[in-house]
Write a structure and sequence with these properties.
about 30% helix; globular
């Protein structure tokens, strides 16, 4: 794509932005990189990604380990061959769940350290037959329209009934059909109340736990893999290729860190309160500082030298997840306060890019040079995001949606759960009303 559209001349590779400061007198952002490059721009768009800053394990001693270690967020481009090795994997979030079956096929032995079991659904990945491809492409504009007008950015038939108003056999059939789809949201959108009613949600949770018991032969291992501390869907559901079946291998061992917590990394491997495990390689699938990590990792300074990191010390505050009061001409793509990670990211990224492009065109046509959210509009939006989130079961989980996976990070539900379609309409209405909630100036 870079070659096709002649983009390489506009891209600097092999560096990172370390600082961005707003020069009020010039009305420009001054940006500095780790290699000493400096750039000046009227507008600054932070397309830094919601899951791009990895989180290292919160266990001491890594520097002592004599074997090889890897983080799933920094995987070597040339790949890793674990053939014949004793491997330990720490973490069973999405990255771990995807990596574990592949590593198990190579390793002589694999030990999985699990702190929190996650709900995972089969991805059913595989080649698409030509007829399926032709049918999708023939109807692609309509498919994309339905995605934009959906709740999660994925076309799905709207639910019409409560899970609690449906008899058990009908529920089972509905969940079974959706289990076969290979979708993150298929089961979650089967009924109207799965995200707002704990009893209704439990019907879906127990269906998935039943699947785990069907797949995993050892009942004790199956129970350890079965989540019971959070409602289904309130931590990001995972998609896998043979994850649960991997634990039927004689060479794979599951360690429950709730019973025997991690103590340290040793020269030879990993020590828990129960024992020490020796490894040739360790894989850390310990996740990311989600949504805000990439933004607060940069020293971003707005009006009066105010630090974004300090402004967000008690949790992120944005208007629409697109702009921040006190930081003129700064845009955040899929930032906190937008559907973001609770949606099909491609759909949400496209919507933000289109909205930002439309905004810049509007400013240019009118000879305007600055746009900034008002504090009042931002306060109202932050309040709305929180109120909508509190209507759901999401705050009940210690998830990265809540920042709960990062020690010391404020426990705030960061994305907007009002729905992709609803949010798009809000953004379009604000633009149509000459960007109400923003201050525009020349």
């Amino acid at each position: 794509m870079a070659d096709r559209f002649d983009l390489r001349r506009d891209i600097t590779f092999g560096t990172k932005v370390t600082r961005a400061a707003y020069d009020e007198a010039a009305g420009r952002w001054e940006v500095r990189t780790a290699t000493g490059e400096e750039a000046s721009a009227r507008f600054l768009v932070m397309a830094t990604g919601c899951l791009s800053v990895s989180k290292r394990p919160e266990v001491p001693g890594l520097e002592r380990f004599r074997g090889a270690w890897y983080h799933t967020g920094h995987w070597p481009h040339e790949g890793v061959d674990f053939t014949g090795q004793r491997v330990g994997v720490i973490g069973t979030g999405s990255s771990g769940i995807q990596a574990i079956p592949v590593i198990a096929e190579q390793a002589a032995s694999l030990t999985v350290f699990q702190r929190t079991p996650n709900f995972s659904l089969p991805a059913h990945n595989g080649p698409l037959d030509p007829e399926t491809q032709r049918a999708r492409k023939a109807n692609y504009p309509e498919y994309r329209r339905r995605a934009r007008e959906s709740g999660f950015g994925i076309p799905v038939e709207p639910a019409t009934a409560s899970a609690l108003e449906t008899d058990e056999e009908a529920r089972r059939r509905a969940y079974e059909e959706r289990w076969r789809r290979g979708s993150l949201t298929a089961i979650l959108t089967a009924y109207t109340d799965l995200l707002v009613n704990r009893e209704a949600n439990e019907t879906a949770a127990e269906f998935v736990r039943g699947k785990i018991r069907e797949i995993v032969r050892d009942p004790e291992v199956a129970e350890t893999l079965s989540p019971r501390d959070h409602p289904f869907g309130t931590k990001r559901p995972c998609l896998d290729s043979g994850y649960y079946a991997t634990f039927n291998r004689d060479t794979v061992t599951l360690v429950d860190l709730r019973k025997t917590p991690l103590v340290e990394i040793t020269a030879d491997g990993v020590r828990t309160t129960g024992r020490e495990y020796a490894f040739d390689s360790i894989v850390f699938a310990t996740g990311f500082d989600a949504m805000t990590g990439a933004l607060t990792a940069i020293d971003i300074r707005g009006r009066g030298g105010v630090s974004l990191r300090e402004e967000w010390a008690q949790g992120p505050r944005t208007y629409l997840g697109l702009g921040v009061a006190g930081f003129p001409n700064l845009f955040t793509v899929t930032g906190p306060g937008s559907p973001s990670v609770l949606s099909n990211m491609m759909v949400s990224i496209e919507q933000h890019v289109d909205w930002i492009a439309g905004c810049l065109a509007y400013l240019r046509e009118r000879g305007l040079t600055a746009i900034e959210p008002t504090a009042e509009a931002q306060d109202a939006w932050v309040r709305h995001v929180r109120e909508v989130g509190d209507l759901t079961l999401y705050p009940m989980a210690d998830s990265w949606y809540m920042g709960a996976n990062v020690p010391g990070k404020p426990r705030v539900f960061m994305p907007y759960i009002g729905g992709v379609s609803t949010y798009r309409q809000i953004c379009d209405d604000i633009a149509a009303k000459d960007y109400t909630g923003f201050t525009l100036s020349a």
